[in-house]
User: Which sequence fits this backbone?
């Protein structure tokens, strides 16, 4: 069986996308999906996304990490699947779709995809660091300097594989405040390495930075990752929850091809 695939990327976070509305590919092919995502023996990607039919909205997003396992919400993947749906002619410049964490709205403004994320509550502090769920679990740690030179993988793995997180895993974000923006590097579970960008990760970082801000009035955050620039908008409620959270940035087509499914 020959499968047509498409590659998209959002600030360097790259994904294989497959229109699964008619194909009906099963979700339990971990070994196959892992091979497709392998950068030496497959197509190469940080993850795989199926676009599928869904009642009551335009489509369903099903996301798999590069280890082939179905996973939680991916913000950059969500922006890429919106661009994919637009290119397929399924949607116009606005859409409503469903993912593992519920329904999302999105807007297409030129090259920018604005993705409405889920409300966030329960930000936990631990020894000066932070832990929260923005559709996926994220650990946030600040550094005063040296973010570009640091050994991110070793530091992040010590957190991801500690006694608390080793079973389910967590993504780890290291942040440096540059004044005009936040510099962010992210280690992603499932990929088990640094990625160029992580949408749910920068969302977590923006909310944590608001908590740490002296004025606590900034509801708009510019963030730079190794893969490019993103923006996060949000509103803080009186009950310490965050709503109307939007992740904004580019998502672009890279290439397409065919691969055999044995």
Assistant:
């Amino acid at each position: 069986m020959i499968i047509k695939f498409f590659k998209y990327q959002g600030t360097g976070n790259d994904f294989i996308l497959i229109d699964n509305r008619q194909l009906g590919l099963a979700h339990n092919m971990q070994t196959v999906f892992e091979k497709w995502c392998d950068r030496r023996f497959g197509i190469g990607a940080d993850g795989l996304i199926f676009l599928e039919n869904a009642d009551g909205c335009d489509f369903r997003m099903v996301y798999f990490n590069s280890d082939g396992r179905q996973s939680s919400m991916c913000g950059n993947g969500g922006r890429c699947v919106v661009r994919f749906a637009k290119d397929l002619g399924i949607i116009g410049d606005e859409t409503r779709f469903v993912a593992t964490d519920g329904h999302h709205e999105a807007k297409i403004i030129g090259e920018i995809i604005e993705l409405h994320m889920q409300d966030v509550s329960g930000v936990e502090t631990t020894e000066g660091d932070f832990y929260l769920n923005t559709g996926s679990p994220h650990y946030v740690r600040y550094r005063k300097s040296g973010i570009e030179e640091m050994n991110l993988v070793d530091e992040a793995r010590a957190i991801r594989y500690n006694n608390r997180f080793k079973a389910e895993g967590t993504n780890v974000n290291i942040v440096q405040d540059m004044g005009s923006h936040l510099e962010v590097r992210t280690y992603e579970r499932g990929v088990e390495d640094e990625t160029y960008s992580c949408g749910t990760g920068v969302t977590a970082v923006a909310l944590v930075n608001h908590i740490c801000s002296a004025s606590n009035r900034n509801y708009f955050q510019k963030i730079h990752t190794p893969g490019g620039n993103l923006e996060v908008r949000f509103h803080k409620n009186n009950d310490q929850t965050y709503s109307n959270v939007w992740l904004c940035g580019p998502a672009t087509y890279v290439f397409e091809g065919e691969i055999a499914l044995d």
About this structure: The CA atoms of residues 56 and 64 lie 23 Å apart. The mean pLDDT is 96. The domain at 2-108+251-260 is CATH 3.10.310.10 (Diaminopimelate Epimerase; Chain A, domain 1).
